[in-house]
Design goal:
heterodimer; A: alpha+beta; Glutaredoxin; two-stranded antiparallel ribbon; about 30% helix; globular; B: alpha/beta; two-stranded antiparallel sheet; 4 helices
């Protein structure tokens, strides 16, 4: 299993998301390679189809497919929670579903 | 650089989503004025927006005014354009003024760096609280209501119990 973790330094949510991803991987005893990559420019955001920070892909598939088509940009990404409301990080359930 | 506690509110005169211009002097009668850096696209702002509406609703009849200011570079972040601000204010039912700092002169004067970031001024327009609205973007996990407590204190003629906290949110998008 290959996991991409893309982030932009200008948004403060990525450490929390990285920690959450680590917790989910550990809880499920998944031995995956996580490639962490910083996106530094708008050109990079466009080249990587980066719709905001953080963006996490499991074997190329976004953990939040609904938000994957957002405009590539250096900004915080909006994750919509199942019960309503928004968050700058994916939910634990979204990560678990993507890793199952 | 962010203005220091006890600093007098820097003046502003900005267009609002209501089609009117709004200056600092327009709020002269408010015993407490919160100037909050905000925008449309930021998930942190969206998470706290409902609490901003609630504070204005709860304390409006005691003269409190909350003013949101968007200073983001709309060329690179079109989600934060003035037209998009008007749409969001309508959709979300904002009960506070939502102003557009197109030339970024006001954010420069205040030194705000995040959205949301609060500057609460007392009746003499001295800064008495700066920072976050409360201690969690998840409303169900809030334990410290910094801005609410500060408003209560100012309206009672007291000093806020906490005068400064680190603002948590998206960066203000400066123009290149």
């Amino acid at each position: 299993m290959d996991i991409e973790f893309l982030y932009w330094e200008g948004c403060p949510s990525y450490p929390e998301a990285r920690q959450l991803l680590g917790e989910v991987l550990a809880a499920r005893e998944i031995d995956a390679r996580v490639e962490v990559r910083e996106v530094k420019s708008q050109a990079e955001a466009e080249a990587l189809d980066f719709p905001g920070s953080p963006t996490i892909r499991v074997d190329g598939r976004d953990v939040d497919p609904a938000g994957a088509a957002g405009r590539p940009a250096l900004m915080c990404r909006i994750y919509r929670k199942p019960g309503g409301g928004v968050s700058p990080v994916p939910t634990r359930e979204q990560l678990e579903a993507a890793l199952s | 650089m962010t203005i220091a506690l006890a600093t007098e509110a820097p003046p502003f005169d900005l267009p609002g989503v209501d089609g009117q211009r709004h200056s600092l002097d327009d709020y002269a009668n408010a015993p407490a004025l919160a100037v909050v850096w905000s925008c449309n696209h930021c998930p942190y702002v969206q998470a706290w927006e409902g609490r901003m509406i609630e504070l204005q609703r709860e304390y409006g009849d005691r003269g409190f005014r909350l003013v949101a200011v968007n200073s983001n570079d709309a060329e690179n972040y079109p989600e934060d354009s003035f037209d998009a601000m008007k749409v969001r204010a309508e959709q979300e039912g904002f009960n506070f003024d939502y102003l557009y700092d197109d030339d970024q002169s006001v954010v420069q004067a205040y030194g705000a760096e995040r959205t949301p970031e609060v500057f609460l001024f007392d009746s003499e327009r001295r800064l008495v609280y700066h920072g976050a609205i409360d201690d969690s973007r998840e409303e169900s996990e809030v334990t410290e209501r910094y801005l609410r407590d500060a408003i209560e204190a100012v309206l009672a003629g007291d000093e806020p119990p906490v005068s400064e906290t680190p603002p948590v949110g998206c960066s203000v998008k400066r123009k290149p």
